[in-house]
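A student in our group prepared the protein record below, which I am reviewing. Here is the record exactly as it was handed to me.
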Amino acid sequence: MAVTALMVKELRERTGAGMLDCKKALEETNGNIEAAIDYLREKGIAKAAKKADRIAAEGLTNVVVEGNLAYVYEVNSETDFVAKNAQFLDLVDLIGTILLASDVTNAEDALKLVSNGKDVATILAEATATIGEKISLRRVTRIEKKAAQGFGFYRHMGGKISVLTILEKDD
C-alpha cells in the first residue's frame, strides 16, 4: 500500500513522532495506522533503552499542593533546552497530578504509579523516545501539614530550584 502524506500527518498527530519515523512505520506496517502506532511505541521504548546510560542533569523542579498534602519533585533531561519544551512542561505537570493522587514518598515508588493504563516509568520512556533525550524522575518528597498550618512555595531560576515551607498560621 502506498503511504500518503495524509497518513503520515495523522500518525504524527496521534503519536507526536517525527515525520520520517511515521513514514517508516507506515511503510513497515503496509499503511495500517494502529499497527504503526504499536511499531512506533516498540521502537521508541528501544530508543529510550539506548539512552538509559546518558546523564540527565538538567530539568525542572516543581511543587504541587492539594489540601494538607504537597509534593516537591524533580524531572530531569539532558539539556536545559528540552526543559523549556512545551511537551516536557506538560510531562512535569502530569507527574504532579499523578503524585497528588497517590501516597508515595520517593521516586522509586513514584515510577510504579499508573495513569491511563501506563506506569510513570513507561510514560518517561515514551517521552524520552518522542523528545529525543533521556528524561528521568530524580527526586520525590511528600510533605503533609496540619490543618492550622499553611504551605508557602515558589520556584526560583525558572524552576531549577523549588522551595516549600510550612507556615505556622494558614493566613
Notes: The longest helix spans residues 33-50.
